[in-house]
Task: structure prediction
Amino acid sequence: MQISDLAGKVVLITGASTGIGAALARGFAAQGAAVGLHYHASVDAAEVLAAEISGAGGRVVLIRSDMATGEGARSAVDQAVAAFGRLDGLINNAGAMVRRVSYELATEADYDEIMDLNARSVLVACSAAIPHLKAAGGGFIINTSSIAARNGAGGGAGLYGSAKAFVSNVTRGMAKELIAFGIRVNAVAPGVIATPFHERYSTEAQMKAMVATVPQGRAGVAEDCVGAYLFLASAELSGYIIGQVIEVNGGQLMP
Result:
């Protein structure tokens, strides 16, 4: 399905080398959008994906920075604008659990590391992007939240879930502030998605336990999330939708 108003748009996708971000990069490129493909550590995966998109006729530029730092978050936006001359959309997808740690044992260093990557990065990237979105006459911001933002997480993922709850509420606040400038802000909250995220942070037993709570009977895959982002990016499809968090979780959570 082609979404006509996405063709020609310039979209920066952070954390786009693997998992959901990579699926988004493919999905937006297939719609004719120019993609700023941001990555940090996954150099090989980013280069392979960029070559795939270019080989299929898409417009893509690789952008490398560390989103856990303010400088890195601003740099990602600056690089995208320098490459394409404008910015129409920002997808804040970079994030990670960093580590599983209980609230009892969590240190201030744990807090700083988890919040910097998952929460502060969103604020700084948005702050850097907003002037460019205003200059473009409006656009969209889509933040990646998580089912953990609503259910409190578990198994040592509480700080991560709390960071994502922050992201969900920032989404609502920004939506109110920015709609006057034609900038629509929403979020997507994936549930249990089989990506390198869970390969890194969840054991096989933890994955089985989580999937057992999904009415649809399976973990999601990255491609299951793409439609929600495309929908929220398109003013034709979702022009009167702001401040919403779309849950993509196979029925695991029905708020």
